[in-house]
Design goal:
This is Tripartite-type tricarboxylate transporter receptor subunit TctC. By secondary structure, the protein is an alpha/beta fold. The chain has helices spanning 2-15, 18-22, 39-55, 70-77, 92-99, 135-145, 159-171, 183-192, 202-210, 234-237, 258-271, 275-283, 296-317; strands at 28-32, 59-63, 85-89, 111-126, 150-153, 176-179, 197-201, 215-219, 245-253.
Length: 322
């Protein structure tokens, strides 16, 4: 029996592709489908640094921005499935299948999941000139003035765009949406009073909130954040049940060998236990997911559930991007 078990194990090892048996033996690239300096880029660079220490190979970050993250995603979906070209993307992976009617890749079946990375809280903030001091007061103004209120976002498919859709759905009010080409100009115009409101990640807004250059109405988590302890949750502030986070996950092209996926997932889990990564995540107002979430199966289940969650919201809003 023991000899037979050894024989089966040896045959299984021989059956693996040679590349999987020696993986990794050269640098790995993680594609970020957004410009350098943004929150997804920051998260990716921290993960890449920690994974490179575990893998014994360089893990390089490549920014391929444009088209709401779909250009970078396409780059990975069409790459050789050998574990050397990966994608780190946010919640946009759950909304792209509904937002975009025509894509050069399969937005659902074109990837292997490796594991989730983090769930970044969102914040509802306003211009210093906005005539409200609390979320409850802001909701009253929004319901009174409707499309006279300008709601900024960082572009179609951006986390701020999605949070804005959910915010309007929760209130049952349509505001005037003002898309920008990135978060920085949106926040700049918010501070200057050109636009009124923005719902964006703590990785983008914590500095402005702490510096009192914007009004902070709420965080979109069930509990208050240690990094922003004075900011109430949306439920506390007058919008019960309004919860949304921007989760990030790591992907490989479809067809990547399972042993390679498992090695990458193992490395990701190790990276998420790295003390330096945990400390930097805390500075950004977030934290790594649990080890159980940083697995291929848990990641895929969460991703598929989120696709189903966002589909009716996007369809009801008619928010499509051709």
């Amino acid at each position: 029996m023991f000899r037979r078990a050894l024989t089966v194990a040896a045959m299984a090892l021989i059956a693996l592709p040679a590349a999987a048996q020696t993986y990794p033996n050269r640098p790995i690239t993680i594609v970020v489908p957004f410009a350098a300096g943004g929150p997804t880029d920051t998260v990716t660079r921290l993960v890449a640094e920690a994974m490179s220490r575990d893998m014994g190979q360089s893990v390089v970050v490549e920014n391929v921005g444009g088209a709401g993250g779909t250009l970078g995603a396409a780059r990975v979906a069409m790459a050789r499935p050998d574990g050397y070209t990966l994608l780190l993307h946010h919640i946009g992976m759950a909304t792209t299948p509904t937002l975009y009617r025509r894509l050069p890749y399969d937005a659902v079946n074109g990837f292997e999941t490796i594991g989730m990375v983090t769930e970044v809280p969102m914040t509802i903030i306003a211009s210093p000139r906005f005539p409200a001091a609390t979320l409850a007061e802001a909701i009253a103004v929004i319901r009174r003035d409707g499309d006279k209120i300008n709601l900024a976002n960082a572009g179609i498919g951006a986390a701020s765009h999605l949070c804005g859709l959910l915010f309007q759905t929760a209130l049952g009010v349509q505001m005037t949406t003002v898309p920008y080409r990135g978060t920085a100009p949106a926040i700049s115009d918010l501070i200057g009073g050109t636009v009124d409101l923005l719902c964006d990640q703590t990785t983008n807004t914590t500095e402005q909130i702490r510096g009192n250059t914007v009004k902070a109405f709420a965080v979109t988590t069930p509990q208050r954040l240690p990094s922003l302890p004075d900011i109430p949750t949306a439920s506390e502030a007058g919008l019960p049940g309004f919860e949304v986070t921007v989760w990030h996950g790591l992907y490989a092209p479809r067809g990547t060998p399972r042993p390679v996926i498992d090695r990458l997932s193992q490395s990701l889990q190790t990276a998420l236990r790295d003390e330096r990564l945990i400390a930097r995540f805390a500075d950004l107002g977030t934290a790594p997911v649990t080890q159980a979430q940083a697995t291929p199966d848990a990641h895929r289940a969460f991703w598929q559930a989120d696709i189903a969650k966002w589909r009716p919201i996007i369809q009801a809003a008619g928010a499509y991007a051709d």
